[in-house]
Known about the structure:
The protein is mainly α. The chain has four helices and no strands. It has helices at 2-5, 9-17, 24-33, 65-68. The radius of gyration is 17 Å and the shape is elongated. The relative contact order is 0.11. It comes from Micromonospora kangleipakensis. This is Helix-turn-helix protein.
Amino acid sequence: xxRFAKVAPSAVGRxxxxxxxPSLQVLERLLGATGLYLVVVDQEGRVVQPxxxxxxxxxxxxxxxxxxxxxxxxxxxxxxxxTVSRRW
Length: 88
């Protein structure tokens, strides 16, 4: 699996043993090596399609998404108050 996922064998062992929570990138590689994919589903179990990403999208004030976020929220993890599950 490590070879197909292009991940160190020791990392696969740590994930399997529960000693490491993989990053999203590593999780996607591990799932891909087994023919599985990570998806987001709504409360009814329907797959949520990703939104298109447009670099030139602006709000009514002419700001980009990045410009609208407070400085402390830029790629800082989940939004305040979000519940994050680390159980696999």
